[in-house]
């Protein structure tokens, strides 16, 4: 216990790891396994704070065989994310306990689903490695919406993979419906890039695209709120 509390920063953080399946920390060999893994991760540029964050979704990271941890690090590097990079922890989390075959299969699925070239898929993995952990159903729905409905080019998405991290119901769809509604009714003004609109905080989005149209579109705020719940208000249906 005395070793883990400073590593995880607090008893609360340590308890989170234990609750997520990290009970092996209490029975694993501290000197021959856990400490070796911690030292190696630190050498890879993963600080204690990131080690703690890594252990919440991957509680076995510190208790698994050190050679296997080294193999995971090598796998993360093959994604194109170097040790010490800010995205390295996420890459390590993405490939943890996945076989090379599974990673290759998921990469093929990504390329087929979004129509990405090898180069475009590499960009996505380097900048958003967590995409490897998304379900096929989730990726399929995002592809159908972003490519087929919004009309985004595969290359556009590949260079902005953060689009795949946002909630379909809570952000991607509702904001698209609002922009489409405003544009159809001549209220949009200067068109903005879809990604830049998605990236806005909720507060700023409402201030820029909802509030200014209270008189011209008095139901817009209500319809947007409804859309954010996963429903499609009549005013947002254009077909």
Overview of this structure, please?
InterPro entries: MTERF, MTERF_sf. GO terms for molecular function: nucleic acid binding. With 239 residues, the protein is an all-alpha fold. It folds into three domains: 4-95, no CATH class; 100-145, no CATH class; 168-236, no CATH class. The chain is 60% helix and 0% strand. It contains 14 helices and no strands. Helix 5 (66-78) crosses helix 6 (88-95), helix 7 (100-114) packs parallel to helix 9 and helix 11 packs antiparallel against helix 14 (220-227). It is elongated. The termini are far apart.
Task: Supply Rg.
Answer: 22 Å
Helix content: 55-70%
- Strand percent estimate: under 5%
Number of domains: 3
Instruction: Give the helix tally.
Output: 14
- Describe the biggest sheet? none
Mean pLDDT: 91
- Pick out the low-confidence regions: none
Give the N-to-C terminal Cα separation. 61 Å
Structural class: mainly alpha
Number of strands: 0
């Amino acid at each position: 216990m005395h070793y883990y509390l400073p590593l995880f920063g607090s008893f609360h953080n340590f308890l989170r790891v234990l609750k997520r399946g990290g009970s092996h920390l209490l029975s694993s060999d501290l000197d021959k396994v856990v400490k070796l893994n911690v030292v190696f991760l630190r050498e890879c540029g993963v600080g204690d704070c990131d080690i703690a964050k890594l252990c919440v979704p991957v509680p076995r990271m510190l208790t698994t065989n050190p050679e296997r941890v080294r193999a995971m690090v090598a796998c993360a590097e093959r994604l194109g994310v170097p040790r010490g990079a800010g995205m390295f922890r996420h890459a390590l989390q993405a490939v943890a306990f996945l076989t090379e075959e599974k990673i290759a299969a998921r990469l093929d699925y990504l390329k087929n689903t979004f129509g990405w070239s090898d180069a475009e898929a590499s960009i996505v993995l380097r900048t958003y490695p967590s995409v490897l952990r998304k379900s096929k159903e989730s990726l399929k729905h995002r592809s159908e919406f972003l490519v087929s409905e919004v009309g985004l080019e595969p290359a556009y998405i590949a260079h902005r993979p953060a689009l795949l991290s946002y909630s379909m119901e809570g952000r991607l769809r509702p904001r698209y419906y609002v922009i489409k509604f405003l544009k159809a009714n001549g209220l949009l003004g200067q068109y903005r890039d879809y990604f830049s609109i998605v990236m806005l905080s909720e507060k700023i989005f409402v201030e820029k695209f909802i509030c200014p149209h209270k008189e011209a579109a008095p139901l817009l705020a209500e319809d947007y709120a409804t859309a954010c719940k996963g429903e499609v208000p009549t005013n947002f249906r254009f077909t």
